[in-house]
Request: fold
Amino acid sequence: MDQKTTNTTPGTAVGKPSVREAAAEAPAAAARLIVSSSPHFMADESIPKIMHTVVAALMPAAAASIYFFGWRALLLIVFCIASCLATEYAFQRIRRQPVKIHDGSAVITGMLLAMTLPAGFPLFGAFLGSFFAIGVGKQLFGGLGYNIFNPALLGRAFLMATYPVLTTTWVEPRTVEKAVDAVTAATPIGLWKFEGNMDFNLLDMFLGNTAGSLGETSALAIIIGGLYLRYKGYINWKLPLGYLGTIAAVSAVFWLVNPARYPDPLFHLFAGGAMLGAWFMVTDMVTSPTTSLGQWIFVIAAGVMAVVIRIFGGLPEGVMYSILFMNAFVPLLNKHTRPRVFGMVKSGKG
Amino acid sequence: MGHRTFERGIHPSYYKELTSGKRVEPAALPRTVVIPLQQHAGTPCEPLVKKGETVQEGQKIGDVKAFVTAPVHASISGKVKDIELANHPNGYRCASVVIEGDGSLRQWGSDGKVVDIGALQPEAVRQAIREAGIVGLGGAAFPSSVKLSPPKGKAVDTVILNGCECEPYLTADHRTMVEEPEKVVWGLKALMRASGAARGFIGIEENKPDAIDALTRALSGSPEIGITVLEAKYPQGAEKMLISAAVGRKVPPGKLPFDVGVLVNNVGTAVAVFEALNWGKPLIERVVTISGNGVREPKNLRVRVGTLFGEVIDQCGGLVGSEIEVLNGGPMMGNSQSTLAVPVTKGTTGITVISADEIQVRPYEPCIKCGNCVEVCPMGLMPYRLGDYGKLQMTAEISALDGLSCLECGCCSYVCPAKRPLIQWIRVGKLKLRQEARKAQGAK
Reply:
């Protein structure tokens, strides 16, 4: 039913002689006719094209991480991608599904997972995270398109539970002058949250010149990639801007009430995983709502949650859990935020 | 930019330049025609002629006593060769009258006289339109006389002529507006007179400036009629979309345009009305655009109803390549033909021939919930969910998601990156839902 069928003319489809004669007189009837369902025009889009564009959009952030954290960052990124591809391949073989590791989706998961890890993270741990992200987060749900949670974030959450210390042991970027070789360092959020240190340099945070996970530190590089994705039409403005806007708005309330204790909204935007989450995780097609209203609810609720976890929670960072938590609501949001049907006066039907 | 339009929709490539500058040429007189007894939405006609009978061009050869129907006429003079089941371009087999022509031609409207609009009686207009077998020429082929007979209590205050022609490739309406603007305007006035409407609009997409110019000139001295310039967007020509863009009224689900006081007709239909009322000429020929990369010389032809596709294509230099897809209509909503021995009907707006390299035969992928289909659906539906339910024939869910509102315009399938055949599935689901409803009604 879904496959196109062919029929040659003049052929058996034609009945009585008179019609067949008429057709035979026409030389045009010698061609092989393809029969398919409308529409016969389709946009030049495909899943691999989207995924490869996202990979390209992650390149600036990957380059920045290598610049700031050295070759170890590159090793971690490549290793995570390879682990994700290997896991995807193994699961697709075991599930007797067509192997589609070339579609680019596992590459994105590997890159995103690596970007949420500190540069010194052990490779075995990175493999476990990749395995969990693809194996449990994606393939056990049924593969691409069927997963509820963002696989990279799920992998990161798994590592957070498995290696609570290692996932939060950051190193200074090599661009920062330091007396001792490669000592551990705290991120701006960690410094503020656990040491009450409000002395941060916003420019360094914007450029990425701070301790932190690989791809999260350079807001600039992430924004460049995000704008490229927007230019290509693969992300909707309201997802990243709604998320970041909510983070800014909620943190501004705290900052206005007590600027001595709470950092300003720009700090919240440039610190931690906010930028990476906003441009590359909130915008994940599979795990974000399909309706306009659903998308607004999704990003606003996630934004509020991210700030609340940052300010009141026991964790150093709230972006990951805010997005994962809202991922769980996506099917519900899709169900209850249907667009208004054309000409429908009241949305009477559920 | 800044032109009126509807919400959502898509901007496909139109490729209209292949034929938009080409005058409508009369097609060669066919030697044989196959005239289906059903060329309209509604009850099929019964044949009024017998095998071996001689018929004149314009003679009524099929009719039926029913409200929603339109009679059919002989498009050439000659002898009835047979009445048989033949292929219909809509994809089924249909009782058809086969006429072998004698090569003679009848002259229509040679005296050049035009009836005064003020002298027209509404009921006489409606009757003349019915007898001429006029149906909507935009593709759906709904009998025009039925549109002019709204149920009691429903008054029409506005007539809109549809000159959007939003399907890629097609330029039949465009050329009609450029070449016969006076007939279009006269036809619109007659329709306004027959329906009692005080206002008239002609909706044209901005990408047809020559049509807008021609009609603006033809409309001088007719303040009751306006031209609504619309954004070139698909499906701007869908009736509900056009009404919403032109007069800001939304036709509720399951309702018809006269429920919001509007009557919509295609510009080609207006020309047919002119010819029927002034010349007594029934609907026996229409303008067809033959275009696409699979045809050697794209053209706009005035084709007699019943001419076989193969003959029409031969007059356009034939096909390019040995593997092609031939569509009745445009690429968005047209349906593929399995044989070229199908006749042009009243609803054939165009014959689009898609070349081998444009045909997209590939397996579909799982839905990645990108939401593109929801973003473009002009009816505000959720096509990816309807598609899944249609595929599984889960009719209760299709009904709950207002699947019957689907226009089958194809925007969702067009934008789907996973190439899922959403429209095909939704069509299956709608069909199943309608079958079940009919069965339930029968059981009562």
Remarks:
- Chain B touches chain A through 89 residues (CB under 8 Å).
